[in-house]
Design a protein that fits this description.
CATH class: Alpha Beta
CATH superfamily: Metal-dependent hydrolases
Number of strands: 8
Number of domains: 1
Radius of gyration: 17 Å
CATH architecture: Alpha-Beta Barrel
Shape: globular
Largest sheet: 8 strands, parallel
Distance between the termini: 13 Å
CATH topology: TIM Barrel
Strand content: 15-25%
Helix content: 40-55%
Length: 260
Amino acid sequence: MPKYFDIHSHLNSPDYEKDLDEVVKRLRETETYTIVVGTDFESSKIAVDLAEKYVEIYACVGVHPVDNPDQGFEIIKFEELTKHSKVVAIGECGMDFFHADKVTDYERQKKLFLDQINFAVACNKPIMIHARDAYEEILHILESLKLKHAARLRGNVHFFAGNAEIAKRFFDIGFTISFTGVITFTHDYDEVIRIAPLSMIMSETDSPYVTPVPYRGRRNEPSYVSEVIKRMAEIREESEEVIRGALVNNALSMIGWFDL
């Protein structure tokens, strides 16, 4: 049983090529587990390879909405990846109209998102959602599909940056939201963290990005997720140990740990 769980990291990034074993060593020392997330087929394959090599790592496989706009979701390739027992989610998938023009790119992103939703539902895995300037568009899709797919349509909205109303709409359809190290240096999301049901929130680092205080200026890594949890406890004015344990259980429930 891990002590901490980072629901979303990119240890498959070139940023870790030179010292990955040291990063994993710190995972073990801090009793931290992480889900390494793919953004295209190649990075998804690396995530699976890492999950096979390291006990502390699980994998999420999919295609990011804008990182590689020429790549579609090839079901045959991803079916092969999802045969691995440590592939626990599909994504990161979703929509992004900060980095892409909504007028010209909406239909491509929508198809890519739907392809991965349908795949996740078919293999009964949660989806890892990337959303930037696209909460309304994503919710419109998910809310319309929820009645059709019921409990098989589920997942987590990573790097949540919305308001309490948006958060509630995700909660209402059974989706959790996760917070990064951003919460250690801004108060923008305090209200959402404070009022969210404890069972519906997660901790993440999005490593190598958005390093939390007190490690600002360094490359981020999953072992720093403890600082995110510490800050969440402060915001909620609850015991850090209670928050830590609840968030680990939330993560383990999402990945099906108790069914493995």
